[in-house]
Amino acid sequence: MKWIFSRTAMWIWATLALTTMAFAAVQEPQLPEGEGKKVLQTACTACHGLEGTVRLKLDKPGWEGLVSSMVSNGAQVDTKDFPVLVDYLVKNFGKGGAAPAPAQSAANTDAAAKKILDEGCTSCHDLDLVTGQHLGKNEWSAIVTSMMAKGANVGDKDMPVLVDYLVKMYGPKK
Questions:
Q1: Which helix or strand (DSSP H or E) is residue 16 part of?
Q2: pTM of structure
Q3: Measuring CA to CA, which residue among 137, 154, 149, 129 is closest to residue 75?
Q4: How many domains does the chain have?
């Protein structure tokens, strides 16, 4: 009987140890210190982790659009904290000054964008949701950024191509 109890206790201990190590391995990324860190941790992690956020490299309008989109989806960010959060994100996770991509022909760009749209967006929803919209560049940027933060399979370098295509194909009606 003692042997069974000891063995069970060892099994439980080993399971807890492995579980602790597994959770430690998937912890949130370390955030740089600064004004806005607490707002980010409080407002953003209520719905999702930060791994998607820290890999985005957006400029100020991009971060403003994303934060506005998140607030409209229910994120709790006080009006006074909005610019603090955006400035923190721009400073720590802003664009890295990557060189612009070489120009492509419109047909190649459209084909590439259509492929990004088909592969990156339809894994979660059908295209009726996209085609029913008639949005401008800022609105499409905010939506694509929001979807990327939620896990859409769209790379940072693909975002401008996709947004331009969405505006061209599903932009405001004239």
A1: helix 2-25
A2: 0.45
A3: 149
A4: 2
What is the percent of the chain with per-residue pLDDT over 90, rounded to a whole number? Answer: 7
Question: Which structural domain, as residue segments, surrounds residue 135?
Answer: 106-170
Tokens standing for 57? Answer: 């490299």
Q: Which of 71, 93, 115 is the last residue of a domain?
A: 93
Q: Per the structure block, which two tokens stand in for 159? A: 């975002």
Helices (H), 49-158: 51-55, 60-72, 82-93, 106-121, 128-131, 137-149
**What are the tens digits of pLDDT across the range 3-35?**
565 666 666 765 655 555 544 444 556 888 989
Rounded Cα distance, 124 and 133, in Å:
17
Residue type, 113: A
100 close to 78: Cβ distance less than 8 angstroms: no
Task: Give domain status of residue 30, yes or no.
Answer: no
Strand, helix or coil at 42? helix
